[in-house]
Amino acid sequence: MYRLAFAIAVMSVVATVLAQHHEVAKLLSDDGAPGDRFGYSVAISGTTAVVGAHADDNDNGSGSGSVYLFDTFTGQQIAKLVPNDGDLFDSFGISVAVSGTTAVVGVPNDDEAGTNSGSAYLFDTVSGEQIAKLIRFDGAEDDRFGISVAISGTTVVVGVYKDDDSGVDSGSAYLYEVGTFVPIAKLVPDDGAAEDRFGISVAISGTTVVVGADKDDDIHSNAGAAYLFDTVTGQQIAKLLPSDGWREDRFGNSVAISGTTAIVGASRADTDDGLGAGSAYLFDTVTGEQIAKLLPNDGAEHDRFGISVAISGNTAVVGADYDDDNGIYSGSAYLFDTISGQQIAKLLPADGAASDQFGGAVAISDTRAVVGAWDDDDIGSAYVFDASPPCPSDLTHDGLVDTRDFLFFLNAWTTSDPVADWNGDGTVNSQDFIAYLNDWVAGC
To answer: Given this model, what pLDDT does residue 65 score?
Structure first.
């Protein structure tokens, strides 16, 4: 009774605490126009964000596409990238990646080797100049080379999800070395089959590549799979499958990797949150074993959690572009701790609205996350968030330090739950309450 009375007295003095606010900047193109789909793809390295607008109409013609560079700390546009030989409906920018000062842009509808055979470009993010155009020795009509791209150091990966080497739309991926600009390996899975769509997503970290095949049928029809490859040998290392995959999950529709941890999205998976709520999985790339299954604290039917994924160090970002917090299909994104598998925060834009599809694309580098909202006001936008490690006083792991956290602590404190031993002295008493209160007031 004493503890409860003491807590109520304190609450009467300190009624509320400002919520931790994660949004740092909203990115908008200087020359945006309706239908550009700015924010359909995003990437980040250090303080440079890359944002694709694959339906932009520029000097190369309708739907030729463009890409923009931004400073993530100032939110200012640095440059606009367009290819030297762009053409109508190329969709330049449908996929983007960046490492250091080199950006890669996918152009799946380029006609270099036949209609919609595809291509990819390299750009210097300092000068904004085109470095090279990547093409294939065996390109063919409708392959869609460039549907996905990734880069780590001097190695580039380009996905070709409609390549037919192992059957119609079985898919493949190519490795390139920056500097030579010729393919060093073609990646094809050991068990590739028609309509697997291997290459729909790609990611790379060091010498390990992850490739998604979201319509693979190993578990069930279109359950999906992902593969690990060694960039040095070009050999397949492992095939990743979820422990509970099911038909039409589309596991592999998104992939990302950092160090020895890979994350794979399954945006159509049915979970306890409802049909099509979506999920994501963490894997150890050394053993190929599943580490954890990620689910949001507030998932709901058809949220499409896992439509996009990204990872940096011990922090993962997962997009849910059909979440309805700010209206139907307004979208959201979530931060997770990859060690514990726990949700750290839910990211929402300050001005989110229905049909924005915020979360359709995500990226992260150190403590900065970028989230695309390609249908924001029909022009598109992207947002930069602070992705710093969670603060201890956020006990509900929702990214906010608010009354719910205080009540969570209060409940633990009044019942002498060890969670409330805030000073770690082995005893739950008023000193713990005061210590937590100070952290709670400080926020994050």
So the answer is: 94
Say how far apart CA 42 and CA 53 lie, in whole Å: 10
CB-based contact 214:148 (threshold 8 Å):
no
CA dihedral 345, 348, 354, 359 (to 10 degrees): -70
The predicted structure's pLDDT at residue 79: 96
How many angstroms separate the CA atoms of 258 and 208, rounded? 9
Strand partners, 343: 336
d(CA 21, CA 114): 48
Q: Where are the alpha helices (DSSP H) in 258-336?
A: none
Fold entry, domain 21-390: Methylamine Dehydrogenase; Chain H (2.130.10)
d(C-alpha 368, C-alpha 382), whole Å: 13
Is the distance from CB of 235 to CB of 229 less than 8 angstroms?
A: yes
Domains of the chain by residue range: 1-20+403-444, 21-390
What pLDDT is attached to residue 61? 67
Q: Say if CB 236 and CB 215 are below 8 A apart.
A: no
Radius of gyration of the chain (CA): 23
Distance CA 18, CA 133 (A): 49
Helix, strand, coil shares, percent, the chain, to 5: 10, 40, 50
- Rounded CA separation 225/436 (Å): 45
Q: Is 384 helix (H, G, I), strand (E, B) or coil?
A: strand
Closest among 72, 54, 57 to 108, alpha carbons compared: 54
Mean pLDDT of residues grouped by 10 in the chain (444 residues)? 47 39 86 94 97 88 89 94 86 97 96 89 97 88 94 97 95 94 93 97 97 95 96 96 94 98 97 95 97 96 97 96 96 95 93 97 96 94 88 75 87 89 88 88 76
C-alpha torsion sign, points 399, 401, 404, 410 = positive
The H or E element that residue 25 is part of is strand 23-27
Taking the C-alpha atoms of residue 136 and residue 187, their distance in angstroms, rounded to an integer, is 13
Tokens of 415: 């019942």
